[in-house]
Amino acid sequence: MIADLIKANRTCRRFDEQHRITPATLLELVDLARLSASAANLQPLKYILSCAPATNARIFECLKWAYYLKNWSGPEPGERPAAYLVMLNDTRISKTLDCDHGIASQSILLGAREKGLAGCMLAAVNRPKLSTVLNIPESLEIKLVLAIGKPKETIVIDNLNADGDIRYWRDDDLVHHVPKRRLEDIVVASYEI
Amino acid sequence: MIADLIKANRTCRRFDEQHRITPATLLELVDLARLSASAANLQPLKYILSCAPATNARIFECLKWAYYLKNWSGPEPGERPAAYLVMLNDTRISKTLDCDHGIASQSILLGAREKGLAGCMLAAVNRPKLSTVLNIPESLEIKLVLAIGKPKETIVIDNLNADGDIRYWRDDDLVHHVPKRRLEDIVVASYEI
Fold first, then answer.
1. Cα-atom radius of gyration of chain B, to the nearest Å?
2. CA distances to A68, A145, B43, B90 from B97, in Å
3. Chain B within 8 Å of A178 (Cβ-Cβ)?
């Protein structure tokens, strides 16, 4: 059931870094994005794949993790992602993106989850630095970095409290809590027969 | 397998309009979006649901269909969507969106596909008119309209020709063809051990 997969597909920030991810797995995930919808079918998204520890380490230096966890600057060595997909917009094909990168990311992360992996979409990226690290030409704009690995944290969905605070947080057992709005709070109107 | 669902989840523009969709089904689909990732967990997306023929007809008048099919202005009566989800950004929560609407749309359409339905993400929307039709407050910005129904067309994925023409097209049997770039054309580099 897709509902089970979507529920299980939680943003993950701590991984078993020793669990290697193969290039073939990354290609399978990119293929899921390739076969997903694209606005006006332009398909401007391109990808850089990395499952090489040395390159991973250089990519990691360009990322900012978990804005709401003020006392945590990101995963420690050993808990870092075993792979990355750098998602690029080819501006020769489409000057701007509307939501292709969201569609593609969801396909990729659902595919990863089905394989027992998990990931994190990172938009807080030092783009100039990452462009240099990966030698990315100017025509390719960095949209997102998807970090992927074998999950090593427990993540639970909570109902949003009355105070409306949407910030995720970690409890004393390092369980990661994600407050979600209720269905009735996001449905504005329903026109029915 | 999520790969099968993603492959089967093709943008559809002709439906069996007599196949009704219930409010409960629409709520289930919105719930899939609710449980999907949201940038900084802000969850600014809100929804208007419609499965009422009279409202559907008024929504339909605000939509432009299939930019590349120049001799076709949209589905005929009887082949129109049986339901709509109007996806709104609550600008009181987030002034702009990055890709939440893409993530949410992919969750919704994969869920619809699993139920034997199909859909189309429409961004070419007469927003002022639709705001009036649905009495949408100014604080809610229309991002996308998702049209949903029981599919009544055959859609196939082709490899992109050497000419690079990405425009979808219909053959004499009204089969809808969608040219997709090859995997090797969208992978820029792969860093491997």
1. 18
2. 19, 17, 10, 10
3. yes
